[in-house]
Design goal:
Layout (H helix, E strand, L loop, with lengths): L22 E9 L2 E9 L7 H12 L7 E4 L5 E4 L2 H9 L4 E5 L24 H9 L6 E6 L2 E6 L7 H8 L18 E7 L6 E7 L11 E4 L1 H4 L8 H8 L9 H14 L5 H5 L13 H8 L19 H4 L5 E5 L4 E5 L3 H10 L4 E5 L5 H4 L12 E5 L9 E4 L2 E5 L4 H10 L5 H10 L5 H6 L2 H10 L6 H9 L2 E6 L6 E4 H6 L4 E8 L6 E9 L7 E12 L4 E10 L6 E2 L1 H7 L6 H16 L10 H19 L5 H4 L15 E5 L18 H6 L14 E7 L5 E7 L1 H4 L4 E5 L30 E2 L5 E7 L2 H8 L3 E6 L7 H6 L6 H5 L13 H4 L2 E3 L10 E9 L11 E6 L5 E5 L4 H12 L6 E5 L13 H15 L3 E4 L2 H7 L5 E10 L5 E11 L8 H9 L9 E8 L15 H19 L3 H8 L22 H11 L2 H14 L3 E14 L5 E8 L5 E5 L8 H13 L6 E3 ...
Parallel strand pairs: 1-5, 6-10, 12-14, 13-14, 24-48, 25-36, 34-35, 38-39, 42-43, 47-48
Antiparallel strand pairs: 1-2, 3-4, 6-7, 8-9, 8-10, 11-12, 15-16, 16-19, 17-18, 17-19, 20-21, 21-22, 22-23, 25-29, 26-28, 26-30, 27-29, 31-39, 32-37, 33-34, 33-36, 35-44, 37-38, 40-46, 41-42, 41-45, 46-47
């Protein structure tokens, strides 16, 4: 092995000096024409290396020679030579004759069969290039097909994205906007194109947000509405996800459908494994993935849908389409697009664009992440794009004597295929293929080229490229053309990355792994799939077989350093040494010195962790090189995180039905799931059509600074830009929360010049333009000037040090109208204190510490969206993605200065919300109405994903400072807790979160004295707003941490301490709820015992102990946790309007928003049950404020049941009206006709408001969960093996919806606990923006087995139809996972010599936090002898 940083020059010396006297051998080549014999002189004698011998043989015979040479030894045996060591042995025994064979002609080992083409046909001089360019007949017509119909576009703009064109030009809004980065899969469509080699059509899934419209020439674009729809019938894939309960808010569903469709087009009968591993590029925030994977799993071999795939026919003209050289020009944007079809044409473009910014593109997939690495203000103005995807010289894969050759335009997927097909030639190829499957996603790998990844790394050296790391470790060589130079040069990875100037990467060669060498690559990331590396690592180590001595090596590290590290000093420390512990410990010291010389400056992870992981990966490489390993070490080198190492996941669902209430309680998926799957469902972000202008919010770029100037003129000079709307255009109150009054008036809709801007992400105005692309670009061009107003405070610790706290009046709710979430207990937000019921005993023990919990972004799939439409008479139609339309209406009436009845707020449905659209939706809605008021035409505004995250805070960073006292047996006495919450720059929205953090803190445990003191810091970060299970999810975790601390102090099992301190019937909580009183039931004892039996808890604890005793570096943990989730539903005021039409159909309008929680189907079930009509007669319409006014906002998990009750009240009135006409003989339709004929009006409204009893809360939802995890003690990676959940939801209203809510809620909580991390840099900029740096769970982060059961025969005594809330309670069972991880860490810490003493484990439990908690020093990484 030559060091990866060296090409040419002297070869590295061999480990042992060899005799080098020249010798001669006779070589015989057998072929079809007979045997040829040559005498071969070897100047290097016995020191000749095998590759040198092959080169001499090729020269002498004039043809490729197979890398297999044979000779006959003295015993007459035929011996094969294929390595240096074997050749050396042959010379040592005096071999003088050898047999060789010609290398057979081999076709490419990939789906297409293009051959690599030499660049020798390219023009060789600048003048040749110019002349060749003159002869190119460029065309400006773009021809493709969309859902079967031909489309011809003349001179499309190079900057136009396919997604924007689909939505804005064609009105195909079912392809939704999710992130604009290719990171969520929401915009997935299928792209079909003719394979130039086979003439067959291949279809792949792509991210339409990354594909330029210019790049679809000759393609067939297939969308979800193109494969099936309501009028023509739904496709089998659409039916599968709809019937399988796999669509909740539905915003992501079309993307899932199209990715599954693409898989079935490739393979109509895939295996369960192939299906399971296909969705690393699709995210879902609602369902928790379990029902989606189950639904699509039915297409696997043996499944009920196997073989039922329905293909869409491709246009016949697609096969006859001939690619032409393309050239498009956008003069206004000063952009050009070329698509050459030959290398000559490419060189002609290079010549023409010599003085311009040239940007070669293949699939453009790097666009999604480029903004995170480019300098602020970077744009594409003046860019010449060159689409190199059809240049034949850049295509093809083939196996040669030098290894695997691959053209630069080959997709990552096809490179993976070629590597897997060639794995028998080299063990390293399989390793490379497996690692490449962890790069990006299916959609990106399908079209994105490996070379694009390399060249992006060349441009952005701090990009931690997996591709660059592993190819460098493999010793890949790259063929490149620089500038106008048509000669091909060969470079190594670091030479290529270190080069400068225009360059075209043509191809690469990946050599075979030398015999006796080992090749391993590793990666650790924030999420299991589709996540860039924190640290990646590649090692190629050549060993002397007998002594296990390192003869040569390549060690490459990425992520730990600013640029790719070729660890030559570490290699020097290894060479000539045996692979033992002494060598490893010495090499680690050298490696860490090399890392320190160019240490990564990223603030997202610590240097200590990056160093530890790099050392751990070197250790794993050493273990991999061992011929045998002790049993306890073997699991250390068995990967369990990558998608294709996971078993096919599974789960069960169990529930009972109260048959008397049918169809209530039955398993009924959302009835709108079908149109959600086809993309026909309308969301607020879809409204506006071609009449609407596109708005883009202009956000502040500096925190805690005075805005001294705001200049929109550079933005207004851009094409398509109409106006910049700022505070001066607001006709009424410039406030986002005007109805709340008081301190809330500080929060302006548009901050103004001379205001002190509190944080990055404050809204300064809105740009209006013809297209979303124009608006996005222009918004970044508005010039902002600031003057510092003081230090920027970005965290709780800094705020406490500066005493930057919210005033007590805000905490207590004393300020006028400060209650942000109607119905929360403001007195709880001010704290609570329960006096002792009996005197404390002397000598009590205590547990005291601080739990620090992290923040969480809502990451609803549909970002904040609104469309404002001016109507006649000063009226307004405003479509908003929101949870509280009445609040939005009252806010907009103040902003516009018009009465509320002038404004009708509509919510057809929202693409997820999770609390983030209870109040923050007023920012976009307010900006839209102000802009539309000035422009006098509709305006639509949808946030970019990264902007949405920067401007709106979610779950707050919260610290829990606690001291609990208890006796020696573990019986609790007192709790003294201080909750410190960071709501950002303003406390407003967080009041309810603090109230819930306080009011849920006791969980299931009885204290004699209970005191909670809240504090809220003020920092220069975005104002937070409630996030699903706000405040209480963290506080219930804190309650469990306290109990675990108590258990450790008294030396008893945690489960025993819990049982000792559970509430009992008749107990009264610190919040004045008496268990068993007024129908407030208590089922925790039942749930606690039943789940342990059902999930075989005792047996699994023993199995975990057994596993841990046999494995040194991977450990398991299993734990159980309970939840008491109190529900105070007396604050809900819910309305419904029920209309019955002459054909017997029923339309229900409610005051609640359908945000994915299944509210509408629950209402429909209750209406059908109450009216006694068929379910298919009932439809629940969009939320509109002109139909139902003054409704409480949709949130808190109680809206569904209260809205259902309101609808039933209306229906009960209708039942009375219809009673004279409902006879045994009369059908439903006949009865309706008779009633109408008699003049009976069949329109009634219902209003429901719960009347509070003596308890503070109406009831509680209970649940228990048992979770099991597997932890890598070296990297900190964690896999959740199994979760069993048992929920007491009373008599559920809809089994499908309620189980789906349990599954989805739990996985959101799992993301909060494990992978979702938010950090700010010192300036207040959020570091974890968009899908690139913020990682919600994927389908490969959920439990391998997720079993959900609903407690049977346990109706809620005071519940609506005996039901309880279902959405948020399950989230508070995530302590079971936390405690399971901690149990695994206890086992690791004990093995590391740290004992089993209690320790604090803060959240989130990222790989870094888990690894650092394990406390593994390098000295414990021992290589066995």
């Amino acid at each position: 092995l030559q060091p990866a940083s060296v090409t040419g020059g002297p070869r590295a010396p061999l480990a042992m000096a060899l005799w080098s006297t020249p010798i001669a051998v006779k070589a015989a080549l057998s072929g079809q024409s007979g045997k040829e014999t040559r005498r071969i002189n070897l100047p290097g004698g016995a020191a000749t290396r095998f590759e040198e011998l092959l080169a001499i043989l090729r020269e002498r015979f004039g043809k490729p020679i197979s890398p297999r040479i044979t000779y006959v030894d003295r015993e007459g045996d035929v011996i094969t030579v294929s390595t240096d060591a074997e050749l050396k042995e042959a010379f040592a025994v005096g071999v003088s004759s050898i047999e060789v064979a010609a290398e057979p002609e081999r076709r490419t080992q990939r789906q297409d069969s293009w051959e690599l083409v030499s660049a020798s046909t390219a023009p060789h001089t600048a003048s040749d290039v110019v002349e060749a360019g003159k002869a190119v007949d460029w065309t400006s017509h773009l021809t493709f097909w969309l859902d079967g119909e031909q489309v011809v576009v003349d001179n499309p703009s190079p900057g136009l994205i396919l997604l924007d064109w689909l939505r804005e030009a064609k009105g195909i809004t079912g392809t939704h906007v999710g992130c604009g980065e290719g990171g969520c899969g929401i915009c997935t469509v299928a792209l079909a194109r003719k394979d130039p080699a086979t003439g067959k059509v291949e279809l792949v899934p792509i991210n339409s947000c990354l594909r330029r419209l210019c790049a679809v020439d000759g393609c067939h674009i297939v969308t979800s509405s193109g494969i099936g729809c309501q009028s023509d019938g739904f496709n089998e894939v659409q039916s599968a996800i709809a019937e399988g309960n796999g669509s909740q808010c539905g915003y992501c569903t079309p993307g899932w459908v199209m990715n599954m469709y693409a898989l079935l087009e490739k393979n109509r009968t895939p295996t369960a494994e192939e299906i399971e591993q296909h969705f690393d590029g699709n995210l879902c925030r609602c369902t928790g993935y379990r029902p989606i994977l189950t639904a699509f799993g039915a297409f696997a071999k043996g499944g009920k849908r196997c073989g039922k795939h329905q293909s869409v026919r491709h246009p016949a003209a697609l096969l006859s389409h001939t690619a032409q050289p393309l050239h498009y020009v956008d003069e206004a944007m000063n952009q050009e697009w070329f698509r050459p079809t030959s290398l000559e044409e490419y060189m002609a473009v290079v010549s023409q664009a010599a003085d311009k910014r040239l940007k070669p593109v293949c699939a453009n997939t790097a666009d999604g992440v480029g903004k995170y690495y480019e300098a602020p203000g970077t744009d594409e103005l003046g860019t010449v794009f060159v689409d190199i995807s059809l240049i034949p010289e850049l295509h093809g894969t083939s196996m040669s004597m030098d290894g695997l050759q691959c053209g630069a335009a080959v997709s990552i997927e096809k490179l993976i295929n070629a590597l897997e097909q060639g794995a028998s030639d080299s063990a390293s190829f399989r390793v490379l293929a497996e690692h490449m499957k962890r790069i990006a996603s299916v959609q990106i790998r399908s079209v994105g080229s490996w070379a694009g990844n390399i060249m992006f790394t060349r441009e952005h050296r701090n990009f931690s490229s997996d591709m660059a790391t592993i190819l460098a470790a493999a010793g890949a060589k790259f063929n490149v053309m620089a500038g106008m130079n048509t000669q091909v040069a060969t470079m190594t990875t670091d030479q290529l990355l270190g080069s400068s100037g225009p360059m075209l990467l043509v191809s690469m060669t990946i050599p075979r792994l030398p015999a006796g060498a080992i090749f391993e690559t590793f990666k650790v990331a924030q999420r299991h799939v589709f996540a860039h590396a924190i640290v990646n690592f590649g090692a190629c180590i050549a060993l002397d077989g007998a002594s296990r001595t390192v003869t040569d090596a390549r060690i490459v590290v990425g992520g730990a350093t600013e640029t790719l590290l070729i660890a030559n000093q570490t290699v020097a420390a290894l060479k000539g040494k045996r692979m033992d512990n002494a060598t490893f410990q010495a090499a680690v010291i050298v490696l860490q010195k090399e890392i320190a010389a160019d240490a990564s400056q990223s603030l997202r992870h610590t240097e200590a962790y990056r160093n530890q992981v790099a050392a751990g990966f070197l250790y794993k490489a050493f273990l991999s090189a061992m011929s045998t390993l002790p049993a306890e070490l073997q699991s250390a080198i068995v990967p369990f995180v990558p998608a294709d190492t996971r078993p096919v996941s599974k789960g069960t669902e169990s529930f009972g039905i109260a048959s008397k209430d049918a169809p209530i309680g039955e398993y009924v998926p959302k009835r709108s799931s079908f149109i959600q799957a086809s993309g026909e469902a309308t969301y607020p972000s879809d409204v506006g059509g071609k009449e609407a202008l596109f708005g883009q919010l202009v956000l502040s770029t500096t925190a805690n600074a005075k805005l001294v100037a705001l200049d929109p003129s550079p933005a207004l000079a851009l094409p398509g830009v109409h106006d910049f709307i700022s505070a001066s255009a607001v006709p009424g109150l410039n406030c986002v929360n005007g109805p709340l009054g008081g301190d809330n008036l500080k929060e302006k809709l548009f901050f103004e010049v001379n205001d002190v801007i509190p944080c990055i992400g404050a809204v300064l105005g809105v740009i209006l333009a013809d297209t979303s692309r124009q608006a996005r670009l222009a918004a970044k061009k508005v010039v902002q000037q600031y003057k510092s107003a003081g230090a920027v405070v970005v965290g709780i610790d800094d705020a406490l040090q500066l005493n930057a706290l919210a005033p007590p009046s805000q905490l207590s709710g004393d300020a006028p109208k400060t209650h942000r979430r109607r119905g929360v207990r403001p007195e709880f937000a001010a704290g609570v204190e329960l006096a002792a019921t009996s005197p404390a005993k002397g000598g009590d023990l205590s547990a005291k510490s601080t739990l620090r919990t992290g923040a969480q972004s809502h990451f609803y799939m549909e970002t904040q969206s609104a469309c404002a439409i001016p109507c006649d008479g000063g009226q307004w139609e405003v479509y908003v993605s929101d949870q509280d339309s009445n609040f939005t209406q009252s806010c907009l009436s103040l902003v516009l200065g018009v009465p509320q009845h002038h404004i009708n707020v509509k919510v057809p449905r929202a693409g997820g919300a999770f609390g983030g659209k209870l109040l923050r939706q007023c920012i976009n809605a307010g900006a839209a109405v102000v802009a539309a008021n000035k422009a006098r035409r509709p305006v639509r505004i949808q946030n970019e994903r990264s902007d949405d995250m920067q401007m709106i805070g979610g779950r707050e960073v919260t610290n829990f400072d606690y001291e609990a006292t208890f006796d020696a047996a573990g019986v609790l006495n007192s709790m003294d807790m201080t909750i410190v919450m960071d709501p950002g720059w303003f406390y407003g929205d967080a009041e309810g979160d603090m109230a819930m953090a306080v009011g849920w803190l006791d969980n299931c445990y009885r204290y004699k004295t209970f005191k909670v003191t809240p504090k809220a810091t003020l920092t220069n970060t975005a104002h937070t707003t409630p996030m699903r299970a706000p405040g209480c999810m963290q506080s219930i975790l804190a309650a469990e941490v306290v109990l675990e601390h108590v258990a450790k102090v008294v030396g008893k099992p945690l489960d025993e301490i819990r049982e000792l301190n559970f509430y009992k019937l008749g107990d009264t909580t610190p919040f004045n709820d008496t268990l068993g009183k007024e129908g407030y039931n208590w089922t925790i004892p039942i749930c606690w015992s039943q789940i342990q039996k059902d999930a075989k808890y005792a047996e699994r604890k023993k199995a975990v102990e057994d596993y841990n005793s046999k494995n040194r570096w991977t450990k398991k943990g299993v734990a159980i946790s309970p939840v008491k989730y109190v529900m105070g539903i007396d604050f809900y005021s819910s309305g419904a309007l029920v209309n019955i039409y002459s054909d017997g159909t029923v339309l229900v309008s409610t005051g609640a928003s359908e945000v994915g929680q299944g509210l509408n189907v629950k209402v429909a079930l209750c209406v059908a049950n109450t009216l006694g009509c068929p379910l298919d007669k009932v439809k629940v319409g969009a939320r509109e404020t002109d139909k139902v006014p003054d409704n409480t906002g949709t949130g808190g998990s109680g809206t569904s049941e209260c809205t259902s009750q309101a609808a039933m009240i209306a229906c009960q009135k209708l039942v009375g009206l219809l009673a004279p006409f409902r006879t045994e003989e009369a059908s439903w339709e006949t009865a309706i006709a008779a009633a109408l004929k008699a003049g009976v009006g069949l329109m009634e409204s219902g209003w429901y408001h719960y009347q509070k009893d003596d308890n503070q809360n109406a009831y509680a939802t209970y649940g228990t969960a048992i979770s099991e995890v597997l932890v890598d003690g070296i990297t900190g990676e964690t896999r959740v093996e199994r979760v069993d959940i048992l929920m007491d939801l009373g008599n559920q209203l809809d089994a499908a919806v309620d189980i789906g809510q349990v599954q989805g809620g739990f996985v959101i909580a799992l993301g909060y606990l494990m992978s979702e991390e938010l950090k700010h840099d010192p300036s207040g900029m959020l570091l974890n923006l968009g899908t690139w740096d913020y990682k919600i769970p994927s389908a490969y982060d959920i439990p391998l087995e997720l079993n959900v059961s609903l407690l049977k025969d346990s109706p809620n005594p005071i519940g609506i139809k005996g039901a309880k809330a279902s959405a948020e309670p399950s989230m508070c069972l995530v302590p079971s996972v936390y405690l399971a991880v901690k149990n695994a860490l206890y086992a690791l810490r004990s093995a590391n010599g740290l004992g089993e003493d209690w320790f604090m484990l803060d959240t989130p439990l990222t790989p870094e936090r888990v690894a650092m908690a394990a406390g593994t020093p390098t000295s414990k990484l021992v290589v066995p002898a």
